[in-house]
Amino acid sequence: MQRGWSVAGAFLLLSVLAFAGCGSSSPASNGGGGTSLPQPPAITSQPMNQTVAVGQSATFSVTSTGTSPLSYQWYENGMAIQGATSSSYTTAPTTAADNGDTFSVAVTDLGGTTTSNTVTLTLTGVVAAGTDVSTYKNDLARTGQNLTETLLTTSNVNATTFGLKRILSVTGLVDAQPLYLSQLNIAGTVHNTVFVATEHDLVYAFDSDTGATLWNVSVANGETPSDNRGCGQVSPEIGVTSTPVIDRPNGVIFVVAMTVDASGNYHQRLHALSLTTGAELTGSPVLIQATYPTVSGTTTFDPSQYKERPGLLLLNGIVYTMWSSHCDYHPYTPWIMGYNESTLAQSIVFNLAPNANGLGPSIWMSGGAAAVDSSGNIYVLTANGVFDSTLNANGFPSMGDYGNAFVKMSSTGGALAVADYFEEDSEVSENASDTDLGSGGAMLLPDLTDSTGTTRHLAVGAGKDGNIYVVNRDNMGKFNSGSDNIWQELDGAVPGGIWSTPAYFNNTVYYADVGGTLKAFTISNAMLSTSPAAQTTTNFEYPGSAPAISANGTSNAIVWAAENSSPAILHAYNASTLVELYNSSQAGTRDQCGNGNKFITPTIADGKVFLGTQNTVCVFGLLQ
Questions:
Q1: Could you give the CA distance from residue 180 to residue 189 in angstroms, rounded to a whole number?
Q2: Residue 184 and residue 61: Cα distance in Å, rounded?
Q3: Is-cis flag, bond preceding 285, omega within 30?
Q4: Strand 417-423 vs strand 478-479: parallel, antiparallel, or unpaired?
Q5: Distance (Å, whole) CA 354 – CA 22
Q6: Interior/surface letters 487-515, b for 16+ CB within 10 angstroms, e for the rest
């Protein structure tokens, strides 16, 4: 509701002084004969407490007597409401944030001011404050953890009390992680809202509690989704592949969509959509195009050669897009572009292999998103491609090409620059065999203390070679052809290779390799255990699994993982032991909802788990 200026007593003071200066020279005495001063107004009917539903208006009224003219000023939570100067006040349509607000009114005449009782506005239909999931894997460290889950526990997540609540049907594959906002006000009604983007260039907003479609829009811009470009990685069509990102305070969801027009021309566009209507906001969409300098001239972004596979990143008012190839079909390089979120003007163009002659790498990370530290440094893993093993005096590739690398970029001043990196000593053979590090995603660990008491800033990454690499973010190790100079290397720890992203909770890192188990590596003295401290009995077929965590602080921690099968299977494990609590095949067909889809991460918020499939989002929760 609208708040305004603080009340002042100037009007009353001037009125009393003016009256005192006219007519009588002295006040009345007990014996009479003088002129009496006016008395403050009397309130004969006080305002009453009001109870209305969220989205409705409330009206407060007062009745008073006194010396005419009477004036009124209403207050909300002790602050004057601008324009509320009559004997009654009607609020704007209420939102959940107005619940418990207090109201009063000051009535003034020439004799003074009388203030009413303070009354309270109570709203019905208010849901307790919940959790938002507005970006890939919950946070910029990409830990996948939601530590505010109070409804789902290790006791009630089982096949008796937990299961499929509803199915949200959509058109097109759901390759992006569903996002979620608690208590979003849409047209005066509060909804717990889940957002879904599909490869058919459609974006949906659903009420997660009822399954009702709140809005759905096409972001094809009057064209059609792209064909699969001869590559089965995203098929049969390419539309919205990457996980969007939400800016709740500004009411916008950002989405990248690929299309082809009637003339066969391919386009990539960044869309800024209203959270409440799905409508394109001012300046949206913007066509994605770029050039970048090379040693021989420039290279130009060809929209037909790329898809936006990594999740979008929103950092310091810039929306970052990062680009991957179609089945390694050349030419392609690892473009990074940034757009001002307010104007959608392109503000950053960067390329991590500008002189690779289109021979890669790309950035794809199995759908993961770039990680960011507290200083605004951005971390990615690049796929196989050209790496310049000839280094300059500072140990950086002389031609600026970072294939198969763990890269740290500074974003100071709104520009990107490589600040540090790590390159495997076996990069030549791994590039040749398509054993790229970039099939996994980067994840940052919280500050850790080593055995000497020194605080370490670490990050983890893993790819197709089955090793887990732990790097010191303050000194990542760069490239040495004889050995990997990094904080820790766990050779063969994930033997099936990683085509997914990890999760973190309570000094434990979780990975699920292809054909292998979900594994828990505990941390002590800033070092990961060299073998799993716990692992599941379930083996996850390609592409393994990208786990996520729910917990209430440090209690009732559950690891959620999706199995890419037909139908898809949602698993829940005790985070400490990885003993299974539930899976969606335990109750026969009751909890089956759609065929599995690769690279899907479960989204957990406010007692519900959202799982994307090939044409649905399954909503799981407590059955009673």
A1: 16
A2: 30
A3: yes
A4: parallel
A5: 87
A6: bbbbeebbebbbbbbbbbbbebbbbbbbe
pLDDT tens-digit profile of 253-286?
999 999 999 999 999 999 999 999 999 999 999 9
Give the C-alpha distances (Å, rounded to integers) separating 570 from 162, 564, 618. 12, 9, 10
How far apart CA 571 and CA 5 sit, in angstroms, is 54
Query: How many angstroms separate the Cα of 475 from the Cα of each of 188, 214, 376?
Result: 51, 48, 16
Look up residue 292 and give its amino acid. Answer: Y
Helix, strand, or coil (residue 20)? helix
Q: What is the DSSP letter of 453?
A: S
DSSP annotation of 441 reads: -
Residues pairing with 475 in the sheet: 472
Q: Please give the C-alpha separations between residue 114 and each of 15, 73, 492, in angstroms, as whole numbers.
A: 15, 11, 79
For residues 589 and 445, what is the distance between their CA atoms, to the nearest angstrom?
Answer: 39
Terminal CA-to-CA distance of the chain, rounded, Å?
36
Evaluate whether 447 touches 423 at the Cβ level (below 8 Å).
Answer: no
Nearest to 527 by CA among 440, 479, 458: 458
- Whole-angstrom distance, CA of residue 397 vs CA of residue 600: 34
Distance (Å) of CA 384 to CA 293, 332, 369, 424: 22, 11, 18, 11
pLDDT in tens, 178-221: 999 999 999 989 999 999 999 999 999 999 999 999 999 999 99
CB distance 471 to 422 below 8 Å: yes
